Amino acid sequence: MTDSAAASDPSALIEAYFAAGYTDGLPVVPPTEKSIAAALAAAGLRAEEPLGEIPSRNTRVTAEKAAINAVMAGCRPEYFPVVVAAIRGLCRPEFAYHGPASSTGGSAMVLIVNGPIARAIGINAGNNLFGQGHRPNATIGRAVRLVMMNVMNTRPGLLDRATLGTPGKYSFCFAENEDDHPWEPLHVTRGFAAHDSTVTVYASNSLCQAYNQLAATPEPLLLCLADALANLSTPNLKGFNESLVVLAGEHTDVLRRNGWSRRDAQQFLVEHASQRVADLKRGGRLPGEVTADDETAERRVFEAPEDILLVCAGGRAGAWSACLPGWGKKWTRSVTVHVEGPR
Amino acid sequence: MKIFDPTAAASTRPLGLAPTPPRLDGVRLALVENTKFNSETLLRKLAERLGRKYGTTLSVVHRKRSPSHEIEDGVIPALRRQADLVISGIGD
Question: Does the distance separating the beta carbons of A60 and B1 come in below 8 Å?
Fold first, then answer.
């Protein structure tokens, strides 16, 4: 296209990005030298600075490429440090990017933001947590997905082999509600100070909204959540799952009122997120004939309390929480990365 | 106005394909098993068939940490010493 065509019809430039195969199916914001420079300045990065590498893709993410994709996603410059931290998380060896990025399971990369930056840039931690309407939530996650597609070569049908995928693959970013929290926030449980800003990156291919309006004590409420985490169609029932549970307002209050600690809730879920071996065999999740012993033998989904990431966020009203089963901690682990500003 | 390229070429290290063995008889096979369900069973059956049909020998079976992880440091040089041909790559 010519410069004059773009100047007279901005949509022509947007169409050019579609034509080049650079988008996720939604229109992008065409970057400029100025907007790319502003993103880099907000994170204190030089264009050529490497953010990380995916060895199995033989590719390296530079700050400039990340900034171009962040601008395309609609990020304001001040969001870019969060995008950078998330990309660094994807590149950590323990995250083991190749599996969750490529699998038929079609994982969303869930970004949980903690610390002062979440409030400073207005990441939603409340009502409609996973829904539309908040620019940082919508564009930070989108920027990370665009980097995955454009830089890490994770393109649908090629190195992204999702059978179904999930709408969360467009963007999946939210903040924890640290202002109304019964415990210490997630990043503190993972070794950071409360005043640190962090992003936790976690791969999940499903989100189950768990409803319970009658439970006034933790046990019945957590039984519902345990069932959602360990139902027969849960992707990984091999006994080493890592899962995310997002507790929203009324459910958080049930635990708070009854004096349950984070550890109490995690331990209860470990003990109750299980399936009988007989049911696993009947459901085709384990091979072999059902034996008499299988009727009483239980197989747990989790090994340890810390395998359950408990996050408090979402609206104050409503008897809803969310369970997001993971891939299995032997295959990928959530990682928490410090968000760094200009040095 | 200018279009900024958001993509990156694969470039961090040069990769080359090993030469194809001119014949299979006497070739030493290595299997890289990625822990996917039934992957070891399938790979071993494949090795058996190759042995019967072409006279290959199974030299080594390496079990990866998971399907998601890179092959461990030092394994590729060891495979190179122990085998002439490696079979890997089990999906769903």
Answer: no
Here the ipTM equals 0.90
Each residue's pLDDT tens digit, A28-68 = 999 999 999 999 999 999 999 999 999 888 899 999 999 99
Q: Measured between CB atoms, which of A31, A104, A153 is closest to B4?
A: A31
Mark out the alpha helices in chain A (DSSP H runs). Answer: 3-8, 10-19, 33-43, 63-73, 80-90, 98-102, 116-120, 135-150, 186-189, 218-229, 249-257, 262-272, 277-282
How far A56 CA lies from chain B's nearest CA (Å)? 7
Longest CA–CA span in chain A (Å) reads: 78
CA distance A111 to A313: 13
For residues B12 and A59, the answer to whether their CB atoms sit within 8 Å is yes
Name the one residue in this structure whose structure tokens are 């979440």.
Answer: A118
Q: Which residues contact B73 (CB under 8 A, 6 or more apart)?
A: none
C-alpha torsion A307→A308→A309→A312, nearest 10: -160
- CB A58 to CB B5 under 8 A? no
- State the burial class of residue A147 (Cβ atoms within 10 Å of its Cβ: 0-12, 13-18, 19+): buried
Best to test chain B binding among A331, A333, A334, A335 (most B CBs inside 10 Å)? A331
H or E segment at A309?
strand A308-312
A57 closest CA partner among B89, B8, B72, B67: B8
Residue of A nearest to B69 (CA): A96
Confidence at residue A5, expressed as pLDDT on a 0 to 100 scale: 55
pLDDT 10s digits, B38-75 = 889 999 999 999 999 999 999 999 999 888 888 888 99
Chain A CB within 8 Å of residue B70 CB: yes
